[in-house]
Amino acid sequence: MERGAVTAARLPVVLLHALALDSSMWSAQSRALRERGHPVVAFDQRGFGSAPLGDAPPTLDVVADDLARLLDERRVERAVLAGSSMGGYVAMAFLRRHPCRVAGLALLSARATADTPQARAQRLRFAELVANEATRSATVELTVPHLVGATTRGNRPDVVAAVRASAHSADPTALAWAQRAIAAREDSTATLSATAVPAVVIAGAEDELTSPEESRYVADVLPRGRLVTVEGAGHLTPLEAPAAVSRALCDLVEEIGASES
């Protein structure tokens, strides 16, 4: 369920992955944080990576509580959360359910608002198609290009190939479960506006799924939020622009460390 050791010296950084991927998507950021002495917990969410799906109904609250139990096991009282896409929604659910355990927040390509009826219907349709063996492969193939920006599609075939391979190898039952959980999520505007923790919102300028305007709204809602827009990147900025995301996360963690020292 998680990778990486936690030391007691500094607040750990929990890295929460996007849909169809696993904690390995954060390898560049994990390495950069560790090089600066920050402990990292790269968390595999239910059904992805090394984590079993289980039989709970689809809700992000379940995943948030999975993380809380892991932190309990590791005797970690507070952590900095960084979530990409689905991982961002898990981070918001964790903040709502366990607010005193969040020391800082990084949200990448995740909306503050709940899905519109149309978006919810599209997610539920995706869940149906990916769960059906006859339509699974075509559904993944149609989805993958939208997960990265036009610059990545044109210049980074290695990234596109890695995302495609991960999406095709993901457990289809887990993909469907996760999409249903995301579709059912609450509006997080009130939760975000009530937190006083330092926060960064990272947007891909070419994101086709969560627009830069939607990311700006998230940053505006957060009382201590700031927006970092990454040029030439789409929805999966940790993979498309690893250095820029690493820099933003390290800056956030070091800001938190300075304020708490």
Number of strand elements: 7
Gyration radius from CA atoms, angstroms? 17 Å
**What do we call the CATH homologous superfamily?**
Alpha/Beta hydrolase fold, catalytic domain
Helix content: 40-55%
If helices are DSSP runs of H or I spanning 4 or more residues, what is the number of helices?
12
- Which structural class should the secondary elements be placed in? alpha/beta
Please state how the strands of the largest beta sheet are arranged side by side: 1-3-2-4-5-6-7
Please name the CATH architecture.
3-Layer(aba) Sandwich
**Beta-strand proportion:** 5-15%
Low-confidence segments, given as residue ranges, are: 1-8
- Mean pLDDT reading: 95
Description:
- It is a single chain.
- The chain has 261 residues and is α/β, with parallel strands linked by helices.
- Helix content is 50%, strand content 13%.
- It has helices spanning 27-35, 60-73, 86-97, 117-131, 133-143, 150-155, 157-169, 172-183, 189-194, 212-221, 237-240, 242-260, and strands spanning 2-3, 13-16, 40-43, 79-84, 102-108, 199-204, 225-230.
What does this entry show, briefly?
With 261 residues, the chain is of the alpha/beta class. Helix content is 50%, strand content 13%. Strands 1-3-2-4-5-6-7 form a seven-stranded mixed sheet, sandwiched between helices.
